[in-house]
């Protein structure tokens, strides 16, 4: 039987601590949320040990689907905490642009930042009601204009440069994020597919190997996402974000950040 590895704890300043439990981060929880009790990482994934393929996916769904569901207004606070710039706690770092911007500069004007649904909400038409439309594990801060350039496009390699987002490319039906967050994007997509499986009144989200998926509850391109997961493994920033969401907001984890090898086991 395979023993689940222990998850490093990432504190508020981004330092990684090799710990035997998932300790809360130092920053306080915002109003309306609570801090989760420390949980041994092995215990968190115990029911997934030794499983592969569809059995592993089903076990992970059960583990992560007890999350606290946020309102769309609460998402603002969640993103401000989870995407906080470790070099400037008054700012957030925008996922595609990589720019550090004031937390207070959120809104709808062209140079503001807003809430990017990495799994585009039109892919399954789930809106912004509590559930997939408010799940912090795929909601990120991004410049309004860059968010618009991504739109609801699938993910793939290629295209032309994206204004205000160096290293990103896009064409008529796909978007390629900068190298530093390619794996982050892949693991967010895979999380959403495991968490939302057609139960609880939510659509059954699944990645496929297509682009231009339209309103289907699907997003691609899966083969490229799996490559990105391998090419850009989880770093301290991504692990810290996972911890903040677990401790302060939803009290569940993205298993593909803790175990990126599970992506190949389920979808390879």
From TrEMBL:
Residues 1-28 form the signal peptide. The keyword Ubl conjugation does not apply. Keywords: Endonuclease, Hydrolase, Nuclease, Signal. It comes from Amycolatopsis ultiminotia. One of its GO terms (molecular function) is endonuclease activity. Residues 169-178 have a biased composition (Basic and acidic residues). The lineage of its organism: Bacteria, Bacillati, Actinomycetota, Actinomycetes, Pseudonocardiales. This is Endonuclease. InterPro entries: Endonuclease-I (IPR007346), His-Me_finger_sf (IPR044925). Residues 148-178 are annotated as: Disordered.
